Amino acid sequence: MNKNWLKQNFLFVFFILFVAVYATLLLIDPRLGPTDDYMFLRTLQNGKLFLPYSQNFPYFDTAKLGRFSPLAAMEYNLFGLFFKSPSPFLYYFYHAVQFTIFAVLIVKLLSKFTTNKFLFYGVPALFFLTPGVVISWFRMQMNERNVIFFLAAFFLCYLAYFDKRKIIYFISTIFFANLVIYSKETTFIAIGVFVFFHLVFSWKIFDKRVKILDGLLMLSSFLYVAIYYFYVYLHRGPNVYGGINFNLLTFIKNFLNYGFFSDPMLILILLPLTIWRISKVFFQRQEAHPVYDSMLLTASTYIAAVFVLNMYGPYYLLPAYILALPPLIYFFSQRQPKIIFWKIFGGITALFFIVNVLPSGLHYLTYYKYLPVNFNKTLDLLIQDINSKYPSQRANIFLDGVDRGTGRGTYFVLAEFLRFKDLSDKQFDLKSNVKTEKALPLISEIPIPFTVFETNAPDEIKNGDYLIVSPQSTRINPTKTYLESLKKDYELVFQTRSRFAFPNFNLKTLVKYLLAKKLSPEQKSAGAMVNENLMNWPDYYVFVRR
Predict the structure, then answer these.
(1) How far is Cα of residue 55 from the mean position of the Cα atoms in its chain?
(2) CA 268/CA 494 separation, integer angstroms
(3) Spatial separation of the C-alpha atoms in residues 448 and 418, rounded to whole Å
(4) Which DSSP symbol is given to 288?
(5) Whole-number Å distance between alpha carbons of 526 and 529
(6) pLDDT tens by residue, 388-412
(7) Rounded to the nearest 10 degrees, what angle do helices 271-278 and 318-333 cross at?
């Protein structure tokens, strides 16, 4: 009996174990790392809460950057209310609980569109291994994590209201919609565009109560746009986050990155399917499905908005998955469409998932587990060594292969953590030996009295100076040969070892590796390859100049 039950419920048991392991990994030795985690140092870790919107972080005015996501990181305040300096374990405990609930939500959502257990258990498991989901849960302050969580809850409540017409679902739908809208600037699209098309496609089908709900949801989206325009856009500064700077070359680059390396399903399957459905509904007069077609059009619109904003990140398109998965499952499970085109593109998508997406997801999972641990070990060693060897003068710290331009944030984060760990500005200085033609300004309201921010001229590494080979290096590929070459002039005083780290090895890094072999040293130094650190290991090496 037990064997029969296990056989019949194998996918369910597998999914439960998968979710349990995933959540457990989130709780293994969590630390604050060299990412946006520095924003915790002067706030929650210092007994102060995150405040909504422009006072969210004490480092810069988000309004001047054109940002308006007032719910960003607000969930972490839950622990700041009860603890003066919350442990990172508490933050990631929240992540683990949220992930577990999200797993339930997405299974329930997909099960409304198919009875195939492999689809509503297997598809989420694969989705959780994509780079975007991994980064969103294994790093903090990733807005997409909350967006997809609230978006899944929104659709469940929205569909439940259709079936039962209960006021609790009506209120919950509006509540979760607004959580989505105010969690990230672009997500008003996910609500506004969806309800617009749903109204158009269902005007003759649903009663007034559904139309009222759609109207209120659309009003919520318009309200966000109005607030953003008058409160943010009209008062933005010269340095806008992201910014619209559309050009063909950037479009092609982003298209290849999303289509081949991080989100092939959305680019190679969703977009063509949307075009196919548009032709069926608007040109061949086929009846539109109010929910499925609205979700398709909204997902494609969201993707288009990200392209227009000239932005690439493995997690930027995550909200589109919540919109795309139900209609994709529905149309293809209904054997629509049947032409050979979809089989070919489905095979290409599966290939890219295996050779690019899955390896990248595993890389980011191990990378963001090791990175904070290795970073803190390096800081502790560095502080101890500086306190013992430099009691009355500043120690010079260089980051190998990190310049003043693209790497300015890396130096700033390092400074913030050293300060947080009670190393005073008089005890250390940050410098760079990398030539930078035009260093971009660091947008911060925190004083930064370090050489790397005061001049564009490269500094010479002298006897006793620290040289740190870090994962953030872009101009250096820290191979064993390179590390050994440093030992001629430097003493290796510390290194970390990440035994189970998965290399950033996929088709993209393979192509870059082959191209790099043909580049001359002059071409590399001129920036022909933006990032030479292809495998991106999460290890640190601390050298001291002899």
Answers:
(1) 22
(2) 46
(3) 13
(4) P
(5) 8
(6) 999 888 999 999 988 888 888 899 9
(7) 60
End-to-end CA distance of the chain: 71
* Token pair 């013992």 in the structure block, residue: 388
Q: What does the pLDDT look like over 120-171, one tens digit per residue?
A: 999 999 999 999 999 999 999 999 999 999 999 999 999 999 888 899 999 9
**Higher confidence at residue 115 or residue 265?**
265
Report the candidate in 16, 24, 11, 15 with the shortest Cα–Cα distance to residue 365. 24
Comparing 197 with 239, which gets the higher pLDDT? 197
Does residue 1 carry a pLDDT above 60?
no
What is the number of other CB atoms lying within 10 angstroms of the CB of residue 422? 9
Taking 90 as the threshold, does the pLDDT of residue 340 lie above it?
no
Peptide bond into 478 cis (omega under 30): no
AA letter at 297: L
By three-state DSSP, how is residue 399 classified? Answer: strand
Q: What's 478's DSSP letter?
A: -
Contact between 528 and 471 under an 8 Å Cβ cutoff? The reply is no
DSSP annotation of 39 reads G
Give the list of residues 6+ apart from residue 103 with CB closer than 8 angstroms, or none. 15, 19, 124, 128
- State how far the alpha carbon of 140 is from the alpha carbons of 60, 73, 96, 446, in Å: 18, 8, 12, 22
Distance CA 109, CA 443 (A): 41
pTM of the model: 0.93
What is the SS3 assignment for 380?
helix
Nearest by Cα to 87 from 38, 145, 29: 29
Residue 394 tokens read as 């500043």
Beta strand 428-431 with 490-495 is unpaired
d(CA 503, CA 365): 11
Q: Would you place residue 189 in the very low, low, confident or very high pLDDT band (cuts 50, 70, 90)?
A: very high
User: What is the residue whose two structure tokens read 């040293």?
Assistant: 521
